[in-house]
Amino acid sequence: MAPLKQFLMIPGPTPIPTEILAAMNHEMIGHRGPGFSKILGEVIDGLKWAYQTKNDIMVYPCSGTGGMETAVVNTLSSGDKALFVNIGNFGDRWVKIAKAYGVAVIDLKFEPGKAADPKVLEAELAKDSNKEIKAIFMQQNETSTGVINDVKALAEVAHKSHPEALVLVDAVSGLLAADLKTDAWGLDVVVSGSQKAFMVPPGIAAVSMSKKAWSFYEKSTLPKHYWDIKNQKKFADKGQTYTTPPEPLIFGMHKSIEILKKEGLENIFKRHELNKLIVRAAFKALGLRMLADDAGASPAVTAVFPPEGIDAEKVRSEIRNRFGVELAPGQGEFKGKLFRIGHLGYVDKLELVATIGALELIFSQMGAKIEIGKGVKAALEQIK
Amino acid sequence: MAPLKQFLMIPGPTPIPTEILAAMNHEMIGHRGPGFSKILGEVIDGLKWAYQTKNDIMVYPCSGTGGMETAVVNTLSSGDKALFVNIGNFGDRWVKIAKAYGVAVIDLKFEPGKAADPKVLEAELAKDSNKEIKAIFMQQNETSTGVINDVKALAEVAHKSHPEALVLVDAVSGLLAADLKTDAWGLDVVVSGSQKAFMVPPGIAAVSMSKKAWSFYEKSTLPKHYWDIKNQKKFADKGQTYTTPPEPLIFGMHKSIEILKKEGLENIFKRHELNKLIVRAAFKALGLRMLADDAGASPAVTAVFPPEGIDAEKVRSEIRNRFGVELAPGQGEFKGKLFRIGHLGYVDKLELVATIGALELIFSQMGAKIEIGKGVKAALEQIK
User: Fold this and answer.
1) ipTM value of the model?
2) What would the pLDDT profile of B228-271 be if each residue is shown by its tens digit?
3) How far A174 CA sits from the closest chain B CA (Å)?
4) A130 and chain B: CB distance < 8 Å anywhere?
5) Which strands form B325-329's sheet, in the order they lie side by side?
6) Whole-prediction pTM value?
7) Binding-face residues of B in 45-104 toward A, CB within 8 A
8) Domain extents for chain A?
C-alpha cells in the first residue's frame, strides 16, 4: 500500500506549516504599490532579526545558489585572490562559481565530515604575507556532510590575519538552525534561503552587505545585471524588488518571521540542537557510523552510514515506499554509501523518533542485527 | 518549548491532506449554477461508492448529529416504537434525539467496551411478538468506547425477526474505516460525516435512504423543515442543496473522493486495520488495559487506560504541551479515567509509532514501570 502521508526529512525544502501555506495562498497584489512595500519592508526587518544585523539585506527571486553567486559578483573582480574554506559539496559549488568568473581561488579543503579547523585557516592565511587574499568564503553549515563550522572562530582568524579582507558566509542551511551573529562576528556578506529554517518553499535568497562589503562593490568589476546588489538596494529602499517578486514566497516569509519571532532565537536554536541530539543518540545506540563527529555535528542535517552490508539507496527507497519518509541521498563521493536525514525547519522531534523507528524496522528486515526499539529509546531519552 | 507541530490523534476531525485543503481554498461559485451541480453530483456519486449503495444520498450542511436527527425525523412518527442498539455515548445521543421527538424508545444497552451481541438483539426483538418495533437503530462504530459493531450480523437478525422494520445505521466514524455494505446488508438509512475517514473538515453529513425508508417517510409525521429529506432530494436531483451549501466542504469532499477512489476500498480498510493492530500491539506490550477487547476493537479509535496511578488527563496535557499530540479524553463514566487515540482518516501509521514513543516517555517520567521502546517495537513489528 502506498503511504498516504509524506514525512519530508531532507535538509530543505522542509515541510511548510499550514499557517505559512495559508498566508501564501493570497491573491496577487501590485508589487509597486504601498501594500507590497509594507510587507517587503517587514520581511527585510525580520531577516535582519534572524541575521542579528543592522546591515542592508536584499532579497532575490532565486535559490540559495543565486545568493552565493550574488556574493561573488558584487564584491570581487577578475583575477582577485579569494580563499574558500571548503568542507564539502557546497564549498565546491562556491569555488566553481568563483572560478567561472575568473577569481583566483585558493581552495582550502578539509576532510569530509570534519569542520574547518581555524588553526589550519590561520596557517594558510599566514602564507599570504602580502595580504593578496581579498575575501574569505565559508559555509556556516555544510549540507552535504552534516557538518557545522565554527564561523565565529574562523571569522576571528580571518579578521586577525587579513583585516582588510571580506568574510562571506553561506548560511543557507545554517541560518536559524544555529546561532549566527552577523554584526558581532563581523560577517560582511551572509547568504540565506527561504526553504530551510524559515519553513517557506524555495525561491528566495537573501544577501546581507556590510559597509565594508559595499566598499568592495564599488571596486568590483565582475559582470552583473540580475545579481547587481546596488540596483537591488535601490529598489529595496522603496520597498520593492528590481524584478517582479515571487509574491507568494514573500507572503510566506512574512508569516514565517511572525511565527519565528514569537518562538524567539534561543528557542529556535534549542529546537534544532535537540533534533541533532535525538538523531545522534539513536544512531549511536544502533552502532551506526555518522560522517560528522560530535564536535562538528550539524543541528540541521545528519549524514549516516547504514549498517554493514546494507545499501543506502535501498534504505531510501524502502522507507519512501513503505513509510512515505523522504531521506536525502549521499552526495559526491558518498553517493549510495550513506543517507542524510534533515532535521531543520518544520521537522518535528516526534517525526524524528518515528523515522528512527521505521529505519530500525527496515534495517532489521534487511538482515542487520538491529535491536528494534533501541534507537527509539535512546532518541526519546534525549527529550527531558 | 511549545511544540511547533501538531499531531491530531483524535477520532475526528482528522488531519486534512494538503490536496484537500488546497481544493477547499477555492473561490465561491454560484451554488445554483451548472458548475456547482456537476461537483455536487460527483460528490454524491462518490458517497454512493463509499456507502456501496444505489440508494439516494442527500447531503446536509451540519455535523454528524444533524444526520442522526435527519434519520429519525424522516422515518418515524410520535409514539412509534423503535429499538436502539446502544453501546455508548453516541447510542445515548440517538436515544435522546428520538425521545425529544416523542418516539417510544427501547434502549438496548450493552456493557461499555463490548460490541452489541446479535443474540441479545434477537432475544429482545423476539419479545416484540406483535412486531410493533418500526425501526432498529445502531452505531457502526462507537467513538466513545472504541468499539465496532458487527453491523452485518445485527442487520441480519433485525431483518429476520422484523422484516417490516427499518435498519438505520450511524456510520459517522465508521464509514471507510471498516467495510459497510449498505445494499448487500439491507441498511435502509446510513448516516456519515465529512470529518472522519473522508479527511475533510466537519460540516457535512450525508444520509442515504432505501426505497423502504422512502415509504416510511411518506407515513412519518414528525415535524421537520431543515431536515426534510424529500425536499433535500428535490434539490439534489437538480445538483443542488436546499439551503446554501458550505462550498469549501463540498470542494473538499470532491477532492477526498478522488484521492480515496484511487486508493480503493480494500486498501482503505486495510490501512485502518493496520492502525488498529499497531496501537493494540503496543498497548498490550506495555501491559495497558484497553476498553475494547480484540473482537470488538475499532479500526478508527482505541480507548486505553493509563498505567496504574497515572492520571489520564495529566497524560493528555503533557503530551499536548510537550509533543503537540492531541489525544481525546474519556467520555461519560470514563471521563478522566482513560484517553482515546484516534487512528482514522489522515492519521499515519508512523504518527502512531511516534505517539506511542511519546506516551512511553511520559508514562516513564510519571513513574510508571514502563520499558521505553517496548511498545514502539511491538508497534513496528505489526508493519510487515
Assistant:
1) 0.85
2) 999 999 999 999 999 999 999 999 999 999 999 999 999 999 99
3) 19
4) no
5) B7-9, B325-329, B339-342, B301-304
6) 0.91
7) none
8) 7-14+265-380, 18-262
